[in-house]
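Notebook entry, structure prediction.
Reason for the run: the old model in the group folder had no record of what sequence produced it. Starting over properly, with the input documented here first.
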Amino acid sequence: MKKNFFTIDRKFIGSQVWLSEKFTKGQAWIDLLGLANWSDTTAELRGIKFTVKRGQVARSERFLTKRWKWSRNKVRRFLNELESEHQIEPQKNNVTSLFTITNYDKYQLNDTTNDTTNDTTNDTTKGKDKQNITIGKSAIDFFAPEINGWDKEEIIKTIDGFISMRKTKAISIGVIQSQIGYWRKFPDKIVNDSLKIYNKNRYWEKTKGEKYLCGIMRGRFNEHEKQNSKTLLQKAF
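New structure, fully documented this time:
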């Protein structure tokens, strides 16, 4: 083990303690190290599959803006600064922002690779299916940084519901990533209310899956916008 190192559980960067206040530059840099993939992964967004390698971060400026509580310009300036100092290296990707943490392995302990490989294998399945999630293993830890502000218990129920509809009793991480990417279009309250409605009615038992839940979110959001419009109109007169 290397000297002068201390370890932080990745769950911590998804905690309220970590995310409750506006980030400093130092915190943002540590956050990027925590968000970086610890092993190669195939992800999917808007139906397009792409590879995120070890040491790479696949997060949009919009995501970082919300997460760090910064302006879009500040996020962009910070990333440009890291690039000019050769701390990160942008990668070409038509789906989302993707960049590599330069010398990522130098920031890790000697046994990081073995530990993460073993954990990944034990937590999912082996071989080509190792990115699949089964009931009871809903990948909350994997997605923790992305679901801040959402009800994690409701997400667990929802994902387990999706899985129960499938003959294989498993769902790919890529499918869940795609769902989370869509959910982020809506305010946190809309997402949480929709998840509760979906689970309360146990719609997965009626073979109503991901698309149906997205429809609930759209409906809730449209209703919310109508109510806001009525309120603004009333105030105007």
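Summary: The chain has two domains: 10-107, 126-236.
The old model has been moved to the deprecated folder.
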